Amino acid sequence: PCTLYDPFLTTINGWWTGKFKPLIPVHLIAHITGGGIPSKLGDLIFPRGFSADLCDLWEPPQIMRQCVEWRGMNDEDTWETFNGGQRVLMGVSAKHAHDVIICAADHNIQAKGCGQIVHDDTTQIRIKSPFTGKDVVFGQK
């Protein structure tokens, strides 16, 4: 089964109104497919001088854990190949995070805060890997 995000995104971004006034300001949306966190999120934040610290991601589905084990993949290869069960990452200010979670729940979508994006000189993504518990760091390429 798939999760359809368009009703949620339409609502939160105010796309259903003629004035397109967002209910909650969203700074970025990254649809995380295979290899998505380092490539898709990195492509959005690195050119602007930002880094991400993703310390509380969703637990990967068991089938994904089995595939990683069967292939003997390390954390770096895993996050460059799979999405780890993460689906969509949104960047909102901390003061709006709870509102996003409530709006997502209104659309039958589970959401939670998974970390933070900060402006700094390192331009990297640090993932606290739910696969092994290790920190995995991807830098700007």
Task: Walk me through what this model shows.
The protein is α+β, with helices and mostly antiparallel strands. It has helices spanning 6-12, 36-45, 62-71, 75-81, 97-106, and strands at residues 28-31, 50-54, 88-91, 115-119, 124-128, 135-139. Strands 4-2-5-6 form a four-stranded mixed sheet, with helices on one face. A two-stranded antiparallel sheet has the order 1-3. The mean pLDDT is 91.
pLDDT averaged over residues: 91
| Main sheet record | 4 strands, mixed
Query: What string, H for helix and E for strand, traces the elements in order?
Result: HEHEHHEHEEE
Structural class: alpha+beta
Using the CA coordinates, give the radius of gyration: 16 Å
Widest beta sheet: strand line-up: 4-2-5-6
Helix run count: 5
What is the count of β-strands? Answer: 6
List the uncertain runs: none
Q: What fraction of the residues are assigned to beta strands by DSSP?
A: 15-25%
3D shape = globular
Fraction of helical residues: 25-40%
SSE map:
Elements: H1 6-12, E1 28-31, H2 36-45, E2 50-54, H3 62-71, H4 75-81, E3 88-91, H5 97-106, E4 115-119, E5 124-128, E6 135-139
Parallel strand pairs: 2-5
Antiparallel strand pairs: 1-3, 2-4, 5-6
In short:
The protein is of the alpha+beta class.
Q: Which labels suit this protein?
A:
single chain, 141 residues, alpha+beta, four-stranded mixed sheet
